[in-house]
Amino acid sequence: MRIGFIGLALVLAGPVAGQQMDHAAHGNHTMHDAAQQQTQQQAQETGQSAFAAIQEIVGLLQADPDTDWSKVDIDALRQHLVDMDNVTLRAVVKNQPIKGGMTFLVSSEQEAVSASIQRMVLAHAAVMDGVDGLYMRAAVQPNGAVLDVKGDEVKIKALGFFGIMATGMHHQAHHLAIARGGNPRH
User: Which of 38, 5, 144 is nearest to 83 (CA)?
Assistant: First the structure.
């Protein structure tokens, strides 16, 4: 009977040992999958918003078989992004309430920033006048520009100059148009 028990023990030990090996292998496989998945994940952030905007547009241009590379002007897009940065981070804005809205006096003592203000404010007013019930008029002034916005006074006050400038989903299409060489640098 001893031989029977040993034989039975060996017969039963085989599947148990096999299961243990399978679990060990599965555990290693799971660890391998996690490591592989981790290496497959890519960083998403490009590190700087102007670079990210350029990268996005270059990707769109490369994906479009109809891109006319003889007209592409990434430097013009970069200059526009510099203008956006100058206005957003370096402009000085004074608000003056007017009947039905607000006047924004936008200026800078830095010549490059003043030029950016003039390009951005005049272009934005021309594109966005009448959109979402906001009526805009812009003019050049020494060291910058003046922007009159009329419409919902509470909304205009809440948005302020920078919210008004960010209004509208035309920016992305505008960036692509600039890069394609078919739009002025404002």
Answer: 144
